[in-house]
Design brief:
By secondary structure, this protein is an alpha+beta fold. It has 3 helices and 2 strands; from the N terminus they run αααββ. It has a two-stranded antiparallel ribbon with strand order 1-2. The chain is globular. The termini are far apart.
Amino acid sequence: RVDAASELARVRSQFDLWNSALQTLDPKKVAALYAPDAVLLPTVSNKVRTSPEEIENYFTQFLQLRPFGTINESDIRLLTPETAIHSGVYT
């Protein structure tokens, strides 16, 4: 049986992992967090990125802004023991 509280905490921690990668200002470290078949809908571009190279390229540009994310609103849905959706608003 899955401990929901532990799983919610684990999913929440993924944002912190991503945000920490942003702070390195290394696009390779950030891009490495994405699955090989990931689709990135970027926040400061209207071009969808669909390959690891495109995702890294996006972060090469985005990291020049020295971003730091703060979660303002969060909703986590545990779909299966291996799948969750973490949606919300961050600034």
